[in-house]
Amino acid sequence: MPVFAVMLRGENFEITLDQGPSRFGFFTTRFVRAKDEQEAEHLAVALVRKHKGLRAGTRPDSAHTPMIYLESIERRPWWHAFKKQRGLVFWDMDAESDDSLPSNHFRPFEVEALRHLVVPVLGAAVTDEVVRDSELVGYEYSGCGYFLTVRHPSLPARRVVCSDPIVVGRFGDVQGGYIAFIENGELVLECYTAGAADVPADFRDRYVTIEQPNQSLERSRER
């Protein structure tokens, strides 16, 4: 029977913490055997709904309806059925309107990439200012990556290339490397193809995880 990797997104799970109840969302992947994609989705959702920690932590009297959505599904080799099922990666939905969070210009994984790349050069305070308060200049998809440009008065006029350490965003089999260019008060965050598959146009809308691979990673970008 085929094996599928099913990525799911949960929303509106109200969990009580020390400071009170908050709505949380999460991402998770489940590996299941199923006859087709529809059955695989149903099995994966059922597994998550049976998660003991999630069931125990979610308020039964919440006014919000917990929902689980399909993010992606793909066929995998038979031996992936024996992979360890992953945990849940949460985010606080009630904190999304907080002023301390990044502007809409950056996705959370892009903020993580920027902090790896830019903090060693400009420091944490300036990096956080850029993440939080920058002005969007432009966005361009190149066909195998993208360029996101912002402007902020704290950014220097001199040209600075932030490429160390190597930072890679991964979604499934797609790998996108990140590098930042700073000049004339503007920052360009470049995402380039760093694997066999080109970075797709909707890469920013996927559940991308940031990694720092070995320095011997071969970069396939063109600037």
Uncertain runs:
97-103, 214-223
Helix content: 10-25%
Distance between the termini: 45 Å
Provide the β-strand percentage band: 35-45%
Overall spatial form: globular
Tally of helical runs: 4
Oligomer: single chain
Give the total of domains: 2
Structural class assignment: alpha+beta
Order of adjacent strands in the largest pleated sheet = 5-6-9-8-7-10
Can you give a write-up of this model?
This protein is an alpha+beta fold and 223 residues long. The chain folds into two domains: 3-95, no CATH class; 108-211, no CATH class. Helices cover 20% and strands 40% of the residues. It contains four helices and ten strands. The protein has helices at residues 37-49, 52-57, 108-122, 124-133; strands at 3-17, 20-33, 67-76, 89-92, 135-141, 145-151, 160-171, 174-183, 186-193, 209-211. Strands 5-6-9-8-7-10 form a six-stranded antiparallel sheet, with helices on one face. Helix 3 (108-122) packs antiparallel against helix 4. It is globular, with a radius of gyration of 20 Å.
Throw out a few tags for this protein:
alpha+beta, 20% helix, 223 residues, 4-stranded antiparallel β-sheet, globular, disordered C terminus, 2 domains
